[in-house]
Design brief:
The protein has 367 residues and is mainly beta. The chain has four helices and 19 strands. Among the domains are: 88 residues, no CATH class; 79 residues, no CATH class. The protein is elongated, with a radius of gyration of 31 Å.
Length: 367
Amino acid sequence: MLNKALYSFFILLFMFNLPSSSGQSIYKKYGIYRNPALVISNKISWTLSMGSGKTHFSHSLKNFYLYQSSEVQLIRSKNAESPSGDLINGQTDWLNNPTDLEDVNVGDLFGIGYDRLDSPVYNTKLDAQTVFLDGDTANFQFQSLWSSVPIDFSAHYDFLKFRIGVGIHYEKLRTNALRPTSNNYGILDYDPGFKTTKVYKYYGILGYKFYEEWNSAMVGEIQIGNVKTSGEFNNDLMNRSLMVNIGLNYEYHFSEYLRLIIKPSFELKSYKMNILDNSGVLLDQVSHNYNAFYIQVGISINIPELRRSPFEADHVQLKHVITDPKKGRLEEVRGQALWKEQNPKMGQNHRRLIRHKVINKKKSHPY
């Protein structure tokens, strides 16, 4: 899927950016050479960024019972057959890889009802860590905040003030135990059973530049794509929603080719973990939200459409035309390094003369 999206993106980009006869008339008229491959590739902006992320995992157990003892935590769907005797079965690891656990002896728990709050003899029959709760009547959720260092690599094309592109994302999440939102029931923390896990995302980009001045710009950007996780999660049992990331890019332009990017963003995503019975038939689903907030810093670069002037003594700062010393043809070149202004309006790096700068005011003389 990602390969097809990338292929289509670059084919369309190539088609829409082929040099036209009207746009290239001055170069044809005077026979000025520009490398067509560089002219086309210059239209693509490549961005690499990294930063800090916080992912909020949360889920409720609606339509489930929660059984907990000092040795085990398991959930049991209300769609399951009613248990008989003192033994029940259910699922552990319902966050990432539901696993059947059978023949758990709950003693005479059913004789005192499912809701501990309605059982006046609860504490005399069970230890302090044993609970059996109805997720529909007990008002609680499990939740936790996981941290990460996200890394993004993307390519986009700007036309007018709009932006379109594709990207990939990687992050390694550091886990924490999920805590219950209520302390009324004596519920223990839920341990995910792993310290770290990896997340991969593949997304498309749509953006709009709503503010721009001399060397700064603000771009609203939305990313929509798919999420994949590493082996700690059973992807065969997961039904994922699309990932939607809404961000605001601040871009500082060192030159027309190089930019510093600072981007805060908020991301919405969720998944449902399938709960199967002993025969492999879908019994129920647990819904999980894992929305995230990111702050990232990166560099965005365009491949220059012109090469540097081959003459060491050439200090012209504007883009200009020379005679190629090897091929003898007219060629347009740039006079500045990648990180400097290539074509400033005054023909200099700065809009003010040096003698007008504060640092040189004492040395300047009145007219």
